[in-house]
Amino acid sequence: FLEKQWYQRRVRVVPDFIRSLWDRIILPLFLFHLNPKSKSTVKIPKYYHCVNVALKRVMGLLVDHSQNLQVHIDNNTDLEHMNHILECLSESPDELLYRYFDREIAAQERKIEEGWANRGTVSFTARLVPQGAGMVLNVRVLRCDSLPKMDTIGSCDAFVKLTIHPKYTKELEKLKSYKTKTVKNLNPEFPEHNFTQTISLDFSSLTRPKAVCLQFAVWDEDFYGPDDFVGEALIPLEEFLHATPSKVFTRPLVVPDLEDGLYCVLKQRAVYNGPIKKFVELRNKMTSTNAPRSPRKSFLNIL
Q1: What are the mean pLDDT values of the chain's consecutive 10-residue runs (303 residues total)?
Q2: pTM of the model
Q3: What is the helix, strand, coil percentage profile of the chain, to 5?
C-alpha cells in the first residue's frame, strides 16, 4: 500500500499517512485513555511516552522504505512538517504548553524585528529574587504608550492583566493573575500597582526554562459587552533575575498568531483536556477583532 502511494500519489502521501495515523491509532487511544467517563479502570502507563516511541518507529520505517524505493525525501518539507506534528501529538499537555510559549516568545521577537509591533508599548519594573527553594517575583506596572484607538470617541479604557505562563500546568496552575485599574487614556499611567508572586519552581530542571514567562495583556474595558484585546508582551522570567529595582523595561505589544500549526494542535487537544480547553478559550479572545473561535474538527486543518 505504501509503495503504491509513493509511486502514484507522491504529493499526497504524507497528508494521507498523517490522517491514517490519526484516525486509526492516535484518536482511538485518546478516546480510550483520556475519556473520564470510560468504564474501564485500566489506563495505559506512560501513555505519551509510548506514543512518542511508536511514532518515531513509524517515521523510521517510512524513511527506510522510501530509501529502498530510491525516493529522496531528505529535504522534503512535508515530511519535516509531519515529524513536527507527530512530536506535538506525542507530548503531554504540560510539555505541549511549554513548547507553545517557547515558540511564541521567539515569534514575538521576530514580529518586533520585522516591524509588526504597532499596538503600543508597556513599561514596568520587575525583579526575580531567590528565596529558599523558590523565588519571589516583584513587578510594578508603570504605564502604556501609544495604544490604538479602541472606542468610537477615539480613546481606550485600558487595563493590564499580568499572568505567569504556561498557566494550567502542574507547576504553575495555582498562581494567580493580577489586574490593574482601568485608565481612560491612550497613554495611561498606573501608579501604585505592584504585583508580588512566590514561585516554587526549579528552572534548572526544566527542558525549556525560557518558556516560563510573564505575560502583560492589555485590554480595552467595554461596559456593554466583552472587553477588547489590545496586545500582549511575553517576557521570560530569566530576564528579571539580575535586574535592579530601578530598571525600567519597555516592551512592544503584539497580537498572537492563532493560525500557527502548534496552536491548532492545542485546539485539537482541548477537546480531550480540560486545562488546555480553558487556555484555548482564553487565547481565542486575544485577537485584534476579538472574534470567538472554536476548535476545528478535522485534524488535517493543521497542514
Answers
A1: 45 57 64 56 58 67 59 53 64 86 92 85 92 86 93 86 89 88 94 81 76 94 88 94 90 88 80 85 76 37 38
A2: 0.72
A3: 40, 20, 40
